[in-house]
Amino acid sequence: MNLSTCPRRFIVGVIMLLLTAGCAADIPTPTPTRALSGPTTAPTANPFFAGPPTEPPPDIVGGPGQNDPTAAALPNQAALPPLPVGTVQGLEQTVELAAPDGALLTGGLLAHSEARMPGLLLLGPDRLSWGDFPARLHAAGFTVLVMQPRPDTARTDIPAMLEALGSGIADPARIGVIGAGTGADATLRGCAAAPICAAAALLSPLDPGLTTILFQYNPRPLFIAASIEDEQSYAVAQELEANATGDAFLQPLERAGQGTAILQNRPDVGDLLIAWLQRQFGG
Fold this sequence. Notes:
Blueprint: H1 8-24, H2 69-72, E1 83-89, E2 92-98, E3 104-110, E4 117-123, H3 133-139, E5 143-147, H4 154-168, E6 170-180, H5 182-192, E7 199-203, H6 210-217, E8 222-227, H7 231-243, E9 248-253, H8 261-265, H9 267-281
Parallel strand pairs: 4-5, 4-6, 6-7, 7-8, 8-9
Antiparallel strand pairs: 1-2, 2-3, 3-5
Helix pairs in contact: 4-5, 5-6, 6-7
């Protein structure tokens, strides 16, 4: 066939057909896609609140098992320490908590039923030596745990007491300790080892070696009271005030006795201490 004699349109058609056939050979076969048989699930909405990523949800802060090692380690439905035992005597409920060495420590708890209040741990020669001072602290808006420290294990016992106090019954951000006599020595030793202790009050500290421990406690607030006639205690109190780097307050007294007896002989010292604590904890 002589292409020169073919109509021009026929020739163009043949050329287009050849070009289309060549291109079609290069087109890949489409890959089949899967179709979903049901509707897709929408992203889960934030169940808490739209706040900064570093700020925890307000309705779970401090709740059992939330950011609290003591609570998180307990079995499901277990009660938080300290555990109530016996009957309530007036405002005070007898409680028990376990020391790190497994020993059961007995104390008295004066708690509030409303929102968590600032917590205070009282350490004295015995639980009854405080008189009505725990009740006065409770009336001033504090949750109070009264314990008798073991001198040889203060650095481990007191942090356990403070963790129990802040685990469910008091505000863990506002925890303080008041110690009297040998309890004052135990207070500074225990608070030096426990960052949860935000403030400490010492009535008649006795051990001259407390000054070497103070640097672990600094710069947290420190209240000290001692009778001038109690020469050893007053010398220790002066040394502590001189070496404290935070808010340190020393109240010298005359013929006020020693330890918890100061609160019985000079009720105004109790008022002064309560006002100081309220200032520290925003009460």
